[in-house]
Amino acid sequence: MTVRPLVILPDAQLRLVSEPVTAVTDEIRTLAADMIETMYDAPGVGLAAVQIGVLKRVVTIDASKDENAKNPTVYLNPEIVWSSEEKRVYDEGCLSIPDFYGEVERPDRVRVRYMNLDGATVEQEADGLLATCLQHEIDHLNGVLFIDHLSKLKRDRVMKKFVKAAKRDAA
């Protein structure tokens, strides 16, 4: 397992749509293991493959309350098949947008269909933090960032800050 470098805003890769996983291969299993390692190292509770520069529809999440009991789940080709009308606001952050948080309103509960590492199709209902994480990471697979759910003013400020930092780091 390898900790891979994170793709950071304003990198245009973050806006690309990821390709479906067509088969569970050794390459996909290695990618998932590396993503879990990278997610824990960051540290974070979720990671989409695009965040390490791989345009595959792979997500890893560990939203367990006990940080000592690691319980990651790998979601291949996850899709939301139902979401509640009830909403919930959560102060979201993102490993690709370090040290920035913003309140995002999303459905409180979702049902997600995905393929697991055994190739089986699974449906899972989630609420609270897990529901938020699933929606956040599935957004990544579609080239959407959590800042897209904020006001234009906040989003523009964040973009300006990260563009400036990228130019400074490149100099």
UniProtKB/TrEMBL annotation:
Cofactor mode of binding and number, as noted:
Binds 1 Fe(2+) ion.
Write down the EC number: 3.5.1.88
One Pfam family from the record = Pep_deformylase
Task: Respond yes or no to whether keyword Ribosomal protein is given for this record.
Answer: no
Q: Which GO terms describe its molecular function?
A: metal ion binding; peptide deformylase activity
Q: Does the keyword Transmembrane helix apply?
A: no
Q: Which GO terms describe its biological process?
A: translation
The UniProt catalytic activity note for this protein reads: N-terminal N-formyl-L-methionyl-[peptide] + H2O = N-terminal L-methionyl-[peptide] + formate
User: Which residues are involved in binding Fe cation?
Assistant: 94, 136, 140
State the active site.
137
| Superkingdom field | Bacteria
Q: Which HAMAP family match?
A: Pep_deformylase (MF_00163)
In the record, the note on similarity to other proteins reads:
Belongs to the polypeptide deformylase family.
Q: What is the protein named?
A: Peptide deformylase
Q: Which organism is it from?
A: Methylorubrum salsuginis
As recorded in Swiss-Prot or TrEMBL, the protein's gene is named def
